[in-house]
Structures are given as C-alpha cells and as structure tokens.
C-alpha cells in the first residue's frame, strides 16, 4: 500500500497514458456507449465481484476500468448535447490528482489554512465577481446543484421559520428542477407546501400569480418563506423574471433563492449578464461548476448574500474538536454545510481558473451562446418543425409541428418526435434528450461542453435535417420498427 518512488512513477504513468489516450480520442469516440448491449449486460454482470484477498495487477485493473468507462454515454465528449452536459476539464482532473495525493483536510480552516484560503478565493469570485453579490457574501462548494439548493433551503428555513416548520411554504414553477422540491422535503417541508406558481406563455414564472398565491396562502394560515426562481431551466434554459421576483420576495419577506445551476456562469459573458439581471438581488444562488464551468462531476456551489445565514443553520461541533481554532477570517466549511470531512474542493476549480484565465471560460461560454443561436436559426428554417422559443441560454427545443390543432394530431406529432430522437441518436455522433413542455413531447439540444464546437453542431444539424427528410418519406409502419 506504500509504493516506493520508482513504483509510484510507473503506476502514475500507466494511469496518465490511459487518460491522455482516452481524452485525445474523445472527438472520435461514439457519443453513446461504445459497447454493444450484450457486452454491456455481460460487463455489468461480471464487474461487481467482491475484492480478492490477494493483490491484483494495475494494468489489468485499469483495462477493466477502461471497459467500464466505455460502457456509458460519452458525457465528456463533444457530441453530448443531452440533459445539461458536464465535460470535465483535463486540468481540473490534474488538480484533483494533486489534491487527493496531498490529501489536505478541507473541513476546518485551521488544519490547512492556505488551502482553505485558495478555496475561499474561488467562492468569493463566484459570489462577488460572477453573481454580483455584495461584500459579506460567501458560500460553500458542494457536491452538486442538488446539495447546494438543499443547503440554501435549510438556511432559508432556519432564518424564516426557526423550529416551527409545519406551515412553511415554498414557491416555484413547474419548470423548477426536481431538486427544489426534494430539498424542501429533506428540509422538513410538507410536499403540499411546495407550491407550483403558474408560468406565462414564454415559460417564465408569472410574478403576479406568485404574489396572489403567496397572499392567499398567508391569509389561509400558511407561512410563505421561500421563493425559488430558476435562472436557466433544465428543460429550456429559460430565465425567470428575476428583478420582479426579487422585489416580490423582498416585499413579502420571503427568502429569494435562484437556481442558477445551469445559467449562473453565463453571467461572465456580455449577453449572459444582460439576461441575468437580478442575480445580485438573491439571498442565495445555486451554481454548478460541473456544468457551465466544465469541472468534473461532484463540483457544485451555493453562494449567499449573508454568510452568517449559512453559519446559523449549519454550525455544529463536538468535544473532540475542542483544540481546533475557529477564529480564522475564513469560515470553516463544516459550519456552512452538512459535511465535516471533505477534500478542499476548490483546488480543482482554482488551478484551471488561474492556468487558463477567466477569459478562456468567458469565451467558451460565449461560443455556446453563438452555437445555440445558430441551431435556433437553422431549425427554425425547417418547415416540419416547431421551434417554440428563442433560447435565453444554450438550449434549443424543437418538435414536429402537428398537422392541425386536434388532440390526435398532437399525439401523432409526439410519436414522430420520439422516433426522431431515436433516429438522431442512432448515428452515435451526438446525443440529444427530450422533455415535455406543457404536455407535448419535445426534443432539446443543449450545448455546454467546452469540447463542442461549430463542426459538431453542424454535423448535428445535418443529421437532424437528414432524419426529418427520411422521416417524411418513410411510412409510419416502417418508422416504428
Ligand atoms: C442540474 C441541475 C440541478 C441539479 O444539480 P446536480 O448537480 O445534478 O445535483 C438543479 N437545477 C438545475 C436548473 C439544473 O440544471
């Protein structure tokens, strides 16, 4: 378990060679699993054997890992346009290797104060420079957006409800990520008290409807305490009217959370900052560096206007920690969230940010906005398609246009759209995903990966156009097979 210098080097090389090779081949790799369904079933059956008592061979084990990694959507590659892509910077992986090897304790500042300062610099940049929150703001790096929203929900609950949770009520829309309702449930809020505010025809939260709902609920004895807006919905990338909702939350005394897991980092771009006005007025914001900052999965963030609110909800200690010094200017991450022992999560963001410079991230995000506008223009020119929304961010939605306004025609369009998705993805050069928008089956093309450029998007458009052409020619019975 403790290899010598020479062995460490040999082992490191083995891993590095495989990783470099994989990363280098990403553009040529299939966008879906490169393993046949049969081989995939065999692999997933054979892999979970218990560990042996005797030592194994690193080369053999790495080969196993490579096989297992192949048996997956190629989420790191340029063709991944499904869900919200998370591409994973090579330099973040290098930073993380270093971080894991030195293994500094990340839960309490005094144990590794300079590492804590590095992490704090990343959080401060996210809170103040990216989101525009004032001095006094701060936050904590989480494992993802869901944990970030949970952390914010607990802080809001603590500040607004204290220990009487029974009547606490939360407001969001049908397009909120499901982690909002889940966070409320985990925070002890009744499911019936997570209220769905109606949206306007452009899929944004209706502030007037929200105001009416909050007032009616309060009149009925509920305690409205949290308004959750989305800055870039997962379905369509739509941004709720943040300034109006901030004003409403302020007037009604609600905590204002913005789920900017997808959209937040677009504030680095000119277009993004124009569309994300109102972000600086939030009490708390969810960010997902493992989406729009191209970090490896497991990197989320919650930033808050007043760091004391996070502290008030999450502080905790034990006698065994009596020697740790908590008088640092940098707060212990363990007092800002649910975790105690953890890695210094900020290292994996700090290294790429300083190595590439913020402009590299800004330009990459700008490119995604350009590509989405390009996709929107191209798809809007296809007569068979409905392309209902101008994208706020980098997601374009589309579906077959129904023949008429009847229900059967809508169902037929849904069916054809579902088959279109299968046929596009069968090329294995790009992967798109689907959702339902106001009941209609809808495809979404989401550009987020730092590896997706114009060439792959043009290829995707060509595939879509080809499949629409052949879909029009192929009779229904054959399209179904
Ligand atoms: C992805 C996403 C989440 C959930 O974040 P995880 O990192 O997957 O936990 C929450 N909200 C929005 C808008 C998202 O796109």
TrEMBL record:
UniProt name for this protein: Aminotransferase class V-fold PLP-dependent enzyme
Under the heading Pfam families, the entry gives: Pyridoxal_deC (PF00282)
Q: Which family does it belong to?
A: Belongs to the group II decarboxylase family.
Q: What keywords does the record list, in alphabetical order? A: Aminotransferase, Decarboxylase, Lyase, Pyridoxal phosphate, Transferase
Q: Which GO terms describe its molecular function?
A: transaminase activity
Span list, region Disordered: 25-53
Cofactor(s) recorded in Swiss-Prot or TrEMBL: pyridoxal 5'-phosphate
Q: Which organism is it from?
A: Micromonospora tarensis
């Amino acid at each position: 378990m403790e290899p010598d210098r020479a062995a460490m080097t040999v082992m490191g090389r083995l891993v590095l060679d495989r990783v470099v090779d994989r990363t280098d081949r990403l553009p040529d790799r299939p966008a879906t699993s490169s393993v046949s369904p049969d081989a995939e079933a065999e692999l997933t059956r054979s892999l979970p054997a218990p560990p042996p008592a005797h030592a194994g061979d690193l080369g053999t084990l790495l080969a196993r890992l490579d096989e297992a990694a192949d048996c997956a959507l190629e989420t790191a590659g340029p063709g991944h346009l499904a869900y919200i892509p998370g591409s994973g910077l090579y330099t973040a992986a290098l930073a993380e290797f270093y971080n894991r090897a030195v293994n500094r304790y990340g839960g309490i500042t005094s144990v590794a104060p300079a590492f804590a300062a590095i992490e704090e610099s990343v959080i401060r940049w996210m809170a103040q420079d990216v989101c525009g929150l004032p001095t006094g703001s701060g936050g904590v790096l989480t494992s993802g957006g869901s944990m970030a929203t949970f952390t914010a929900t607990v802080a809001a609950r603590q500040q607004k409800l204290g220990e009487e949770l029974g009547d606490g009520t939360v407001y969001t829309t049908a397009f909120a990520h499901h982690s909002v309702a889940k966070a409320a449930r985990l925070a002890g809020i009744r499911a019936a008290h997570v209220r769905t505010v109606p949206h306007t025809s452009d899929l944004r939260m209706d502030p007037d409807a929200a105001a009416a709902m909050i007032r009616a609920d309060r009149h009925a004895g509920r305690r409205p305490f949290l308004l959750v807006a989305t800055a870039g919905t997962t379905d369509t990338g739509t941004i709720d009217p943040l300034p109006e909702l901030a004003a409403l939350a302020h007037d009604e005394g609600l905590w204002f959370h913005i789920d900017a897991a997808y959209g937040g980092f677009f504030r680095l771009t000119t277009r993004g900052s124009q569309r994300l006005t109102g972000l600086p007025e939030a009490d708390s914001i969810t960010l997902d560096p493992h989406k729009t900052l191209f970090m490896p999965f497991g990197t989320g963030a919650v930033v808050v206007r007043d760091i004391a609110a996070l502290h008030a909800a999450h502080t905790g200690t034990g006698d065994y920690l009596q020697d740790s010094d908590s008088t640092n200017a940098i707060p212990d991450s363990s007092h800002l969230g649910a975790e105690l022992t953890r890695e210094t999560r900020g290292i994996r963001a700090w290294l790429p940010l300083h190595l590439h410079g913020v402009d590299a991230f800004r330009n990459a995000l700008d490119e995604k906005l350009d590509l989405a506008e390009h996709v929107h223009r191209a798809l809007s020119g296809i007569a068979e398609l409905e392309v209902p929304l101008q994208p706020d961010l980098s997601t374009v939605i589309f579906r077959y246009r129904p023949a008429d306004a009847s229900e059967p025609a809508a169902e037929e369009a849904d069916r054809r759209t579902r088959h279109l998705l299968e046929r596009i993805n069968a090329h294995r050069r790009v992967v798109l995903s689907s959702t339902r928008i106001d009941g209609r089956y809808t495809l979404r093309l989401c550009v987020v990966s730092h590896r997706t450029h114009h060439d792959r998007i043009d290829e995707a458009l060509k595939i879509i156009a080809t499949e629409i052409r052949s879909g029009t020619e192929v009779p229904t019975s054959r399209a179904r097979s």
